[in-house]
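Pipeline run #58 for the internal structure catalog. This entry was flagged by the ingest filter as a single-chain record with no existing model, so it goes straight to prediction. Upstream metadata was stripped on purpose; only the residue string is passed forward. Reviewer on rotation: M.T. Logging verbosity set to normal.
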Amino acid sequence: MKATVEEFHPSARFDLATMRMVAEHLVNPRAAVESLARLVKPGGLVIVYTVNKWSLITTLSWITPLRFHHIVKRWLWRTEEQDT
């Protein structure tokens, strides 16, 4: 089962919430942003980290077969194929 940020209801709020390389995959961005706002304390930070659509790495990934993505990610970050 995959959990979403909308389904996460901790007992305490956070000083910081981050999203790394997922913003472009959100089905309902508004609900995700509202959930992130709910998760942080007043004055807390939400940091969204993602690539620029027109960056060199994004352009290269568009023209590179996916099997090479697996190889590079495994080499750089020791990830499994299902993580790509």
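catalog note: Strands lie at 14-20, 40-49.
catalog note: The chain has two domains: 1-50, 52-84.
status: ready for reviewer M.T.
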